[in-house]
Amino acid sequence: MTFTRARIALAGLVLITLIAAGCTAENEAAATSMATASVAGGASPTATATGTATDTGEPVASTHAIPTADLPLVRFTSTAGREATLPIEVIPTAEFAIGLSGRRELTGRGMLFYWPSGDSESGFWMKNTHIPLDIAFVDRDLKIIAILQLEAESEEIRRAPAPYLAAIEAPLGWYAEHGIDAGGTVEFLFDPDALGAGR
């Protein structure tokens, strides 16, 4: 009788140890994901990894594997009337904390961060983002209110000068190369709401 109770107690102890180990591994995975955040707002990042870059082993957004030719387009028009079109990855809100972290290149494409309310004040940082970027902030009238340069791997938080609807990251120099400036406008050649942007 005593032997049977001891075996049951031992089995219970093993089960509790396994559950605790599983919880610890889960918490470590969440912490790793949070450490790769590329967007910093008022709240702490809580996104989980949805993919892994083959060259870095770091979490990357779920849209990273979509071929550039299959991405939706954004058309920019400068204050001088010059136009340029950029294919962009449209990530869900749950992946805003991942953003473009874990990437070693970003050729011919960008990424959209979209807030349907049009009044975001979230800031951006470049922790674990290994390529320098441009970021254009767009207000609810689809006007570019600022274009900033973001230094690779910088933990400095950069913010728009006013609340905004969208932030569009592109390779460093893309906006200047195409003559796109603050005061210009943006046209989404797709429906961001239909794609679930900002959800």
Kindly describe this structure.
The strands form 3 sheets. A 7-stranded mixed sheet has the order 9-8-10-6-5-4-11, with no helix packed on it. A two-stranded antiparallel ribbon has the order 1-7. A two-stranded antiparallel sheet has the order 2-3. The chain is α+β, with helices and mostly antiparallel strands and 199 residues long. It has one domain: Protein of unknown function DUF192 (Jelly Rolls), CATH 2.60.120. The chain has helices at 2-35, 174-177, and strands at 39-40, 51-52, 59-60, 73-77, 83-90, 110-114, 123-124, 133-138, 144-150, 166-171, 185-188. Strand 8 (133-138) and strand 9 form a beta hairpin. Mean pLDDT is 79; it is low at 1-54. It is 19% helix and 25% strand.
Strand order of the largest sheet: 9-8-10-6-5-4-11
- The CATH superfamily turns out to be Protein of unknown function DUF192
> In CATH terms, what is the fold-level topology?
Jelly Rolls
The parts where pLDDT drops under 50 for at least 5 residues are: 1-54
Nearest-angstrom radius of gyration? 21 Å
